[in-house]
Amino acid sequence: xxxxxxDAPLAALRALWTEYAPQGNAYLRRAIDPESMGx
Length: 39
Prior knowledge:
By secondary structure, the chain is an all-alpha fold. The protein is elongated and about 40 Å long. The longest helix has 12 residues, at 9-20. The protein has helices at 9-20, 24-32.
């Protein structure tokens, strides 16, 4: 997130984190063992 691009950069970052955080384990698992995720 570029701070100049948002009027409320912390709120924008918080919204992105809220969306990304639940997917974090899947990204980590795919990085460690790509074949475990299927096609």
